[in-house]
Design goal:
eight-stranded parallel barrel, 19 helices, disordered C terminus, alpha/beta, 624 residues, four-stranded mixed sheet
């Protein structure tokens, strides 16, 4: 606790000296009494006049959030992770007067590691989160190894050779990251998928394959039987369910969770997920006797009983995802206070929000759930169909909950200006309370700033402040902070990218346009980018000596990529044969890989190339 207060004091002093040349006399305190219902709640007050006064919080993390809110109200803007992602005002101490008391609109406000990241990328993200109102960070799996490995081996790059990288490197990185999470008092989420393979002795370092011949005979009966065979699904342990009707399989799972929780008490919320993927659950007669969700709830109850016996009060997040969207039939959580519901609508569309701004939310009026067909389930893309599952689950579970959503996982590389996606994200964040959810953990690329970081900036502000600031106001706030005096030019460029390209086309969604329509649209997109390039290049040159250089540098390198992409999409829409499309995709990979070396903190080249270049070469939606 004291470490976080000391860090908050050091941050306040550091920024005040940069802003005013002095530090004032500002005390940091814990509130003697705080009306909070959960250790994950934040609340703080600021009473400062002419650089003197008090910032008080309900917990050390809230004191730090109060410090950053005070700086925000003075005019500081933290528009992107990293030291070059902030702009600060120049003030006198006498001008530093703020009176504020409140709490964030939502309890859970966090980001989950994904994509391809360096340790520096993650450290910058952890540092940035509380500056923009977030209070949580989530490391998937035990070491987050696959996400680091992708970057250090430069997966998908055609210009950077792979570096030597090991699991021990990831463990060292996570230890550094955990120290920074602890210093800030952030809510620390951990694990998720992986229990099903770790309990069998197979590491959960990523979606790696293993040879079936090497599966020990004592392990094979514990694997889910699919299509008459007990084997790792697709050869991938992480994607393989257990035979949950087998008491030995459940015992191993429970033992694994209990041992990990006992030895990792610094974790705030431990995620208990089953295997990844879908239509891969056990088909043996014993498993078919119950629904997958019933087996899951039975397992969660057994975990709770073991943790209770060990005297552990570890909070557990359980997952509503794929087959687990269907609520239980016969099983119920016996100790719901230990659990947090996590709704993960991974198959939803991101071209539309859950609800339009003026659309009423009535959780009583929900669409009927489709019947479940064992290993032949079809999952909803329509947002209302996804919400029907959530609302049915809410009849079963009345405890804490949040959404684990993917706006910035794939669609940030499909909606190129980001403004339409940012609007969907804003609308979603500001309606979560109406939907009975108390926050969002964003499963997103760790480098989500190409061609701008507007989406994650607006997400943080909307989760913290709700709808008190309009989407238009937050858009202006971001572009002024990121781009300075040429903000209008930057906004026009981003708006043009959103309007001239087609989010729905890249997602494979019908928007009533013909192939000829798309050819014309992408030709116009290319012309727009090329017409905009001279002004963008000139503005970027002007900004290099200012605090806006980074954001403009990203826009400048984006022009060549989007000019080429527009031409390539026009060819694809016109029905070009595979060979020239493959050549266009290879050129795109080279452009993106070269750009990544210049703007690495903002552009995840691996994901852009996988999704967008892959889309050029194949039919259907740009997706993993």
């Amino acid at each position: 606790m004291q470490e976080t207060i000391d860090f908050a004091r050091a941050e306040l002093t550091r920024y005040m000296r940069r802003i005013t040349g002095g530090s004032g006399l500002i005390r940091l305190e814990l509130m003697p009494q705080a009306d909070t219902a959960s250790p994950f709640d934040d609340a703080f007050s600021i009473e400062i006049r002419k650089g003197n006064g008090v910032i008080a919080g309900c917990c050390p993390r809230s004191v730090l959030l109060g410090v950053y809110r005070f700086l925000f109200l003075l005019g500081c803007r933290f528009f992107a992770p990293g030291a070059d992602g902030e702009v600060l005002p120049s003030l006198t101490l006498e001008a530093c007067t703020v009176s504020y008391r409140g709490r964030p609109a939502l309890r859970h406000r966090g980001v989950c590691i994904e994509g391809a990241v360096s340790v520096e990328n993650v450290l910058d993200m952890v540092d940035w989160l509380p500056k923009n109102g977030f209070n949580a960070y989530y490391i998937q799996f035990r070491e987050g190894h696959t996400f680091f490995e992708r970057w250090y081996t430069h997966e998908g790059s055609v210009t950077q050779p792979a570096e030597r990288y090991t699991l021990e490197d990831s463990r060292r990185h996570v230890a550094r990251i955990e120290a920074e999470i602890r210093k800030r008092g952030l809510i620390y989420h951990k694990i998720g998928h992986g229990w099903t393979c770790e309990c069998l002795g197979y590491p959960s370092t990523g979606w790696h394959t293993v040879e079936d011949e090497g599966v020990p005979p004592e392990i094979r009966p514990l694997l889910a039987q699919v299509n008459g065979t007990r084997a790792f699904f697709g050869g991938i342990p992480l994607n393989t369910h257990l035979c949950y009707s087998n008491p030995e399989a459940r015992r191993r799972f429970v033992d694994e969770v209990a041992d990990y929780a006992l030895n990792h008490r610094d974790i705030s919320i431990l995620h208990i997920w089953l295997a990844d993927n879908y239509n891969n659950i056990c088909e043996c007669s014993a498993c078919r006797a119950r629904s997958q969700t019933d087996w899951y709830v039975m397992l969660l109850n057994e975990i709770d009983e073991r943790l209770t016996a060990l005297g552990l009060d570890t909070r557990l997040a359980f997952l509503i995802y794929f087959e687990l969207l269907w609520p239980p039939v016969t099983q119920h959580l016996k100790n719901p206070d230990r659990f947090i519901l996590m709704f993960a609508p991974i198959t939803r569309t991101y071209t539309r929000p859950y609800y339009q701004p003026d659309e009423p939310v009535d959780r009583e009026k929900r669409a009927p759930l489709p019947s479940y067909s064992h290993n032949q389930a079809v999952f909803p893309t329509n947002v209302k169909e996804n919400l029907a599952f959530l609302y049915r689950w809410q009849e079963e579970f009345h405890g804490d909950s949040f959404v684990y959503d993917y706006h910035l996982m794939w669609d940030i590389d499909k909606e190129y200006g980001g403004l339409q996606l940012a609007r969907v994200l804003y609308d979603d964040c500001t309606r979560l309370k109406d939907m009975g959810l108390n926050g969002l953990i964003s499963c997103q690329l760790g480098r989500a700033g190409f061609p701008s970081g507007i989406c994650q900036y607006i997400m943080g502000r909307a989760l913290f402040d709700g709808a008190s600031s309009s989407f238009e106001a937050l858009t202006e706030e971001f572009v002024e902070a990121a781009y300075g005096r040429d903000a209008a030019l930057a906004l026009a460029y981003l708006r043009g990218l959103s309007e001239h390209f087609s989010h729905a086309y890249i997602r494979g969604e019908d928007e009533g346009m013909t192939a000829a329509d798309y050819v014309r649209r992408f030709q116009e997109a290319g012309a727009f980018v090329r017409d905009s390039t001279p002004a963008i290049t000139a503005a970027a040159a002007r900004a290099q000596t200012s605090g806006h250089g980074r954001a403009w540098r990203v826009l400048a390198v984006s022009t060549a990529i989007f000019s080429h992409l527009a031409d390539a999409l026009a060819e694809k829409a016109a029905g070009a044969p595979p060979a020239p499309l493959k050549e266009l995709a290879q050129t795109l990979r080279r452009l993106v890989s070269e750009a990544e070396t210049a703007v690495q903190p903002d552009l995840d080249g691996m994901y852009f190339n996988m999704l967008v270049a892959g889309f050029l070469e194949h039919t259907g939606e740009a997706q993993e």
